[in-house]
Amino acid sequence: MVFLSVLHIRNYIGGHFRDPHSAEWLDVENPATAQRYALVARSTRADVDEAVQAAQQAFPSWSTLSAKERSDVLLAVAAKIREHADELARAESDDNGKTLRQSSTVDIPRAEANMAFFATEILHSETATHQTDVHTLNYTTRSPIGVVGCISPWNLPLYLFTWKIAPALAAGNCVVAKPSELTPFTAFLFSKLCADAGLPPGVLNVVHGLGSECGQAIIEHPDVKAISFTGGTATGRTIASIAAPQFKKLSLELGGKNASIVFADAPIAETARKVARAAFTNQGEICLCGSRILVERSIYTPFVEALVAETNKFTVGDPLEESTRMGALVSKAHMEKVLSYIELAKTEGGTVLAGGSRVRVEGRCSDGYFVAPTLIDGLTEHCRVNQEEIFGPVATVIPFDTEDQAIAMANSTPYGLAASVWTDQLQRAHRVAHRLESGIVWINCWLVRDLRTPFGGVKQSGVGREGGTEALRFFTEAKNICVWL
Ligand code: NDP
């Protein structure tokens, strides 16, 4: 039954807001209060079909605009994000449970930056020529693919949604996008902003619903020629098994189990502060979080003491309060999963050094899904807690004796997304970085991002790279034209 007073998060198809064909709606909850505050469309194949049709109709005119014309529209979208930044930040916090501080200083500014970056990137891109000999010249063109699917997760909702659709649209494609049904609100607000900014109807279509229904219909649709997906490794595997036999282009940004490697020459207090930030930012719900902290044995005791103190500074509380450093986890199910890993750690021989349980916050958030920032030691690198992605505020500390041992530990999981190395020795920093099986390595920093750099993982953390020219290459097809002069 539909309650008309509740906010309805509708699909955005062909420039119109539409109810789902199923006439069914899913509850959307604020995880900090455990209260439903909206309903989101439960879309099915019929809605996806309409979205793909709308995108196909829009493609001929959008793809033949000049780069400058597309750039102008996308810059207008970026300006709308800036204008509505406060509303979007609040919506992101209510939807996901993250602190307002995080959404207003990181998520929403980055969503604006994503749009502006790719809007201007296309004004400066080049294609190659290859002169074979005096008679033969090859030149390469790059054309948009057509209709592409973009599927994004709940942890950085608008940030990752725009990270995908901005390069897709800038390159001249039309998009059918699905945000996570757990956090659909900012994608809904964003579709309104796109309409206001003058993005032509059908260029971006946002279809809401469950991954297994609406997401899968996007993946399976024969006219969706490329899929850009960010989410869990298991989902990525399912998507690859559907898309690969159809020879669709695939970009998969998947899970991680990232190591922060601390050598004895790193300054203890400063490094402990930064490594704690790497572990617990956004409740540990960032694929890049360093959840395995490897520490050289000679500084293990003082470093862990400093780390426990830093961990306890992540004050858990109402996400809207300025003093809160850690908000709610995204859902009850996710909170239970995170808590089950803390219990597992105890059975695997771990000792909880900080946190370790659910937190009851007073006031309007008394039923919210909060977990204390948790630090555990005493586990081997091969146990499940150190091998599986928890994706919450849980980090482990493990001592090592030699550089080789640290590298072997860091590389011991099936994942290979990101790592950080903390040392004052320049040569060691580079040497270790080169030997890590990881798509991204930070030295003496974490989460410092330049949107031009390749972003993605190796092993089970994904296939392909996003960012800068890598993203524009993914969303275009190259053609070589050979001329006899
Ligand atoms: P999921 O894999 O569960 O979901 C991601 C998206 O895919 C959601 O929109 C989901 O919809 C949809 N989906 C689920 N099943 C299917 C399907 N069969 N076909 C098509 N779409 C589907 O991931 P989470 O949302 O739980 O996100 C957390 C994961 O994302 C973590 O593993 C994290 O590491 C990873 N991640 C990776 C990043 C990277 O850049 N490498 C960045 C951020 C997160 P629904 O919500 O309805 O299930």
In short:
With 485 residues, the chain is of the alpha/beta class. The chain has helices at residues 45-63, 67-83, 85-96, 100-121, 157-170, 185-197, 211-220, 233-243, 268-280, 300-311, 332-347, 384-387, 403-410, 426-435, 468-474, and strands at 7-9, 11-13, 16-18, 25-30, 35-41, 129-133, 136-144, 147-151, 174-178, 204-206, 226-230, 249-253, 258-262, 290-296, 351-354, 358-359, 370-371, 374-377, 394-400, 415-416, 418-422, 440-443, 458-459, 462-463, 476-484.
What would your notes on this structure say?
- The structure is a single chain.
- The protein has helices at 45-63, 67-83, 85-96, 100-121, 157-170, 185-197, 211-220, 233-243, 268-280, 300-311, 332-347, 384-387, 403-410, 426-435, 468-474, and strands at 7-9, 11-13, 16-18, 25-30, 35-41, 129-133, 136-144, 147-151, 174-178, 204-206, 226-230, 249-253, 258-262, 290-296, 351-354, 358-359, 370-371, 374-377, 394-400, 415-416, 418-422, 440-443, 458-459, 462-463, 476-484.
- Strand 21 (418-422), helix 14 and strand 22 form a beta-alpha-beta unit.
- The chain has two domains: 7-254 and 466-484, Aldehyde Dehydrogenase, Chain A, domain 1 (3-Layer(aba) Sandwich); 259-459, Aldehyde Dehydrogenase, Chain A, domain 2, CATH 3.40.309.10.
- It has 15 helices and 25 strands.
- 39% of the residues lie in helices and 24% in strands.
- With 485 residues, it is of the alpha/beta class.
- It has a seven-stranded mixed β-sheet with strand order 15-18-19-14-13-21-22, sandwiched between helices. It has a six-stranded mixed β-sheet with strand order 10-9-8-11-12-24, with helices on both faces.
- The structure holds NADPH dihydro-nicotinamide-adenine-dinucleotide phosphate (NDP).
- Residues 151-155, 160, 178, 180-182, 210-212, 215-216, 219, 230-232, 235, 238-239, 253-256, 287, 389, 391, 417, 457, 462 line the site of NADPH dihydro-nicotinamide-adenine-dinucleotide phosphate (NDP).
